[in-house]
Each structure stands twice: as structure tokens, then as C-alpha cells.
Amino acid sequence: MTVGILSHRRRDAHEIPPAGVAAGESGGAEAGSIGETAGVHATTRPPVLRADGLHKSFGSTRAVDGLSLEIQPGERVGIVGPNGAGKTTTLLMLLGAIEPDGGTIDLVGERLPAGRSRAMEQVGFAAGYLPLPDRLTVMETLDVFGTLYGLEAPREAAGVVLEELGIAHLAGQTVESLSSGQATLVGFAKAVIHHPRLVVLDEPTASLDPDVAMRVRDRLEWMNAEHHATLLLTSHDMREVERLTTRVVFLRAGRIIADGPAADVVADAGYPDLEAMFLAEAARLRGEAV
Amino acid sequence: MSSASRRRVLAMAKRNVLAQRRNPGHWFLLLVLPVVDGLLFGSIGVAFGEGEAPVRLLVTGIMLFHLIWQLTLAGSLGILEEVWSRNLMNLIATPLTEREFLGSLGLVGLARTVVSVTMIAVVGFGFYAVAPDSAGWVLVPSAAILLLFGWAISLFVVALTLQYGDSAEVFSWGILVLLMPLSGFFYPVESLPDVLQPIAAVIPLTKVFDAVQVGLETGTVAWGSIAWAALGTLALLGLVVWFLDRQLGRFRRLGWVTRFT
Q1: What ipTM goes with this model?
Q2: Is the alpha carbon torsion for B152, B154, B160, B163 positive or negative?
Q3: C-alpha span between A171 and A182 (Å, rounded)
Q4: Is the dihedral of CA B163, A89, A175, B99 positive or negative?
Q5: Nearest to B94 among A88, A136, A148 (CB)
Q6: What gap in Å lies between CA B138 and CA B209, rounded to an integer?
Q7: What residue ranges do the domains of chain A occupy?
Q8: Across the strands, what pairs with A62?
Q9: In percent, how much of chain A has pLDDT > 70?
Q10: Which residues of chain B have pLDDT under 50?
Q11: pLDDT tier for residue A150 given thresholds of 50, 70 and 90
Q12: CATH of domain A49-122+228-285
């Protein structure tokens, strides 16, 4: 059995309130912030991210092939797919780090690449595999990144986020002296210090022990609920994706083959859960019958 | 420049200084190397020269050479620090622009040149009685041209680093090691083998040191040499900026960022 092209069943954002927030309530702050009255239908708000017809090839390899994606404020979206499906290339294009061969990207209302700098003031990024700069203490690192994000009082903001993550005691330590789990938490603190509208996470809990991974997930859910932060993440941990996201975008060879709530996506494809679907797709890529 | 932009430049300069503060190698290059250079060239001038002229030429020459040297080091080590830390992607995912990043490298480079040149000036004056302003007013345009030249080399190394990563490290000092003997810092270019003299003649630095030599001997400013050096340096800078712009375009188009993650 192979995974076929599935019908797009993405729910509108207003159907998926952030955890702990009633439907319709989550749009209030956002709507107010753009001059709309509370209660206005969520889908009338501008999307946090709109990518249209993205193409990217590296030599003869087509990494992303006509991908279009729209993410509404407050959504929690997971991009999944086996290695080579185009997840990282897609994320890097959405962050402005790689220029698409074709298509357009509007990030928090700014068209890339011209508006990249303005857009990134409202975006946070962390990757489990990405270390922090050497030779700086945790506080110095957050101070520098907080300033880059435009915070007026970055050290105070750093103190708050470290406290919230339960790692205030690490403030004076140099980054090199941290364990991999602690470093990932600090990287996460760096990504959310400025309360971004969109948090982009690539393998956020890779290499974390279950306790620390749970703290990161709790923090993400809290940010989504309290600050209406939109989450966009990739992960190879399908259970994590199922828990954290309200919508799954499944990629194959740079194309979206399924888009919707995880339960609907796996049900449509005839699998018991996302992990089974992922394994089947990976096996299909290897040319094995499942 | 907007205030947000200025704050980002200063934040990156601060990051650079903080990183350098905890790296003993940086301290060596910033404080020890200038002293060693000052002692080395000052003593050679005393040992092999007749009168004060040789020692003045050598000490002034090495002092001016450090303007290029430290600026180039700041640029290349600044970006290499981010490469070694695999921090480039972290920076790209912030509002920091390429110009701001480069601006911070320039700022740190200028600070390094002030420290380094001061060290050599102290050594030259203290041990060899060479006043740092021995060459007179020619030092002002010469320093400006050398800083621009150093900045051009810096940007060139940054452009190469985008493509080759830390393999480009060798260029940060290799280019200067190549230029040093060819540009007549410490001797007239006529001392070079015949085959190398035409190459030396087209390097803008040669004209700067011609002018400095004239300044040391006569106290006047050889504006002709300065003008040629300025034009050559501006042309070089233009070429390097074009190359860097092209490299940045390729960095984004070809996804080179994945080499640094």
C-alpha cells in the first residue's frame, strides 16, 4: 500500500482554537491589533504566512515543486515527510534564507525578500540541531539576540523567559558549558524572547530527554494559548506532531500530498496514526512494498 | 540609518567583542603581534640601516600595514567566528541585514586598528625614538586609503567564506602575506626581481608607500601617488562589492546556508 494524493481537508483557522482558548476568542487580540472588531470571522484576518507556487531546484534535483501554503494566526502547523521530502528547503525559503526559483512568500504581511528584515522582527526560529554562538554566556546570547529582534530591554526579557523555562540558573554560564538539552532550551528561549507572532521550529525537541521535551512542548502550547503565537514546526517525532499541531502538512517530493488535522489526514489515508503513515511513505520512497 | 538598524549593528559588534574577549588567540593578534612587529622591524632598521631614515621607514611602514592587517582580521575572523559556531542560520533568522552585519565587522575592525597602531606607535617611540607622525600630513590620506584597501580585502574574504566556509580562513592572512613583499612597504619596488615589478606597480598600496616614503624624506605630500592609490583602491573596492553581491545572491539561490547548519 502506498500513500496517495489526499484531498485537502484543511479546516479554517477559526475552527481550531489554540489550546485553552475558546473558538472566536483567539482572534480577538489579533483582530484588535489590526483595527478589526472582536468577533470578526478569523479567516478575514490576514494570514501569518502565505506562500504561493513555490519552486526550488538544486541542479537537477527538484526540492520543492509548486508548494502553496497559507497559515492563519493562532494555527499550529506541522510540516512532515520523510528525508528529502522538502521540509527544510521549504522552511528555509519561508525564513528568507533560500531564494525560491518561483513563487511568492508573504511573511507576517511582508513580501520576501524585500520585507525580510521587518518580517523577522515578528518571527522566532529555533532548530534542535543548531548550536548557539560560542564564547558567550546565556544572558549575553539572549541580550544580543533580543536586541537584534528589536527589544528595548533585552536583558529583562531574557530574565523572564529563562525563569519561565525554569533555567534562570544558567544565565551566567557560557553556552559551551551547557548540556545538549540545556542548549536546546536556551535556543528555544532565544526564539521566543520577543514574543513573536510566528514561531518556526525545526526538530525542536531532537536530542532532548522526555522531561525537557515536555517543558518545551508545554511552553509552546502556552505561547499559542496566551499570546496567540502561530507555530510552524517540522519533526520526525510523529507523536509530538500529533500532540502539538492542529494541522499537518504532509510533503512528498516537494509537494503537499495531505493537509489537515492529523486525525483526518491519517484517516483519509487509511492509517491508524501519523507514525504509520510516515513509515509507509518512507518505505514507498525506498521502493519497498508495505 | 534607522535607530533599529544602528542598534543591530552595535549588538553584533558587542557579540563580536564578547567572543573575542574570551579567545586568547584574538588577544595575541591584537596586542602581542603589533609589539613583536614593532620590535622586529625597528631592530632591523637599527641593525642594517645608516642613520635614522631606515628605522623611521620600517616602523612607519609596519604601523601603516597594521591598518590593513587588523581590519582584514576583524572581517575574516568576524564571519569565521559565526561559521565555527554554526551561528549563521541563527543570525539569518533575525531582522539583521547583510549590510548591518558587515557594518559591525567594520566597526570592530576600526577599533582593532586603533589598538594595534597605538601599540606599534608606543613601541616605535619608546624604543626607537620614531614619532608616529614622522611622515607628516601624508599619513592622513594614506591611512584612509589603507583602511579602504583593508576593507576591500575583508569583504573579499567574507565573500569567499560564504562559498568555502572555514576553508577560506587561509585567505584572511594569505592575501596580506602576498601583498606585503609586493607593495614596497619596507623597500623600494626597484629592489624586487624585474619580473615582479610590473605587478607591484599596479597594486595601489605601492603608491601609498611611495607617498609615505616621500613624506618621510621631504615632509611633503605626493598628491599624484595618493590620487593614483585612491583611484586604484576605489576601483578594487567596487570590484569586491560586486563580487560580494554576486556571492550573496548565490548564497541565497544555491542554498549555501545549509553548509553552515
Answers
A1: 0.88
A2: negative
A3: 11
A4: positive
A5: A148
A6: 10
A7: 49-122+228-285
A8: A57
A9: 83
A10: none
A11: very high
A12: 3.40.50.300
